[in-house]
Amino acid sequence: MTGYLDEEAQWVLDISRAAKARPFESGSPLEARIAYNAGSPALQGAREAVASVEERQISGPNGPIKVRIYRGIGAPSQDGPGLLYLHGGGWVIGSLDSHDEICRWFANLAECTVVCPDYRLAPEHKFPAGLMDCAATLAFMAETAADLGVDPKRLAVAGDSAGGNLAAVLALMARSGEAPQIAGQLLFYPNTDARQTTDGYRRYAEGFGLTAATMKWFRDHYVRTPADIADWRVSPLLAETVANAAPAFIATAGHDILVDEGMAYSMRLQEAGVRMVARHWPGQIHGFVSMGRFMPAARQAVEEAVVAWRSFERNAV
């Protein structure tokens, strides 16, 4: 029994079925990227105006990284909040453009500066290449905080799906100095357990957008060997401890194969004493925050993430 679907979610699924879209796993990663990039504009809403957008190249351990920097309307010129946003796409697809809408929402709603990296994708660049790019971008934000107009003590990380995975891992790395310190982690339906054995993989294996077959295809492209699956930098739920991680906001969708692992990670953080705001959209599907054209819940989720982030700052010791 899977419960009800929100009307908007059912509408998106019906559109997808009518289009008879080819499953990503039936073709090459390049073909999947082309298809995803072609389809994502139809799901995103109008691009919200922000104070400014610029692109730069920064240095990383694997070479240059293109980043897009958004300054929100009302963002302070100095000592403002800064957000590293990591796009989803199973570590294989996704781009700066596919999640542009979310970055613009965050920039304006939080009156902050958002930096989104075009991190390296698998299988051309397997784990941990993309993660290293994300860590390098966070380091860039900390090191150039004055230039960006942000306070290095007010940095947070955010991401959806595989981007949520990368953000969660950075939050764990920050505890030991492997990444700069952060003040919050904002995760939308994060992938936290690459073993892919939760019951959600049975309940929502097919028919709800992201399928179990596609997730396996994504993961197998990302990892170097099966041994990587148990590495906490791939599966943060398997970390020995999550204590002392940054305060977290975690959003989950009811009809999502990742719902169980997202909830399990929320519970682990709570049990470890990490400040937590957990929000569940029972009638929603994976990826709904990227579907602003159809989903009122998309912007609502970002609004709630911003409220949580502000509460973390207010309650900071």
From TrEMBL:
Its EC number is 3.1.1.-. It holds the Pfam family Abhydrolase_3. Residues 83-289 form the Alpha/beta hydrolase fold-3 domain. It is an enzyme of class 3 (hydrolase). GO terms for molecular function: hydrolase activity. The keyword tRNA-binding does not apply. The active site is at S161. PROSITE patterns: LIPASE_GDXG_HIS (PS01173), LIPASE_GDXG_SER (PS01174). It comes from Rhizobium leucaenae. This is Acetyl esterase. Keywords: Hydrolase. Coiled coil: none annotated. It comes from the Bacteria. The keyword Transferase does not apply. Belongs to the 'GDXG' lipolytic enzyme family.
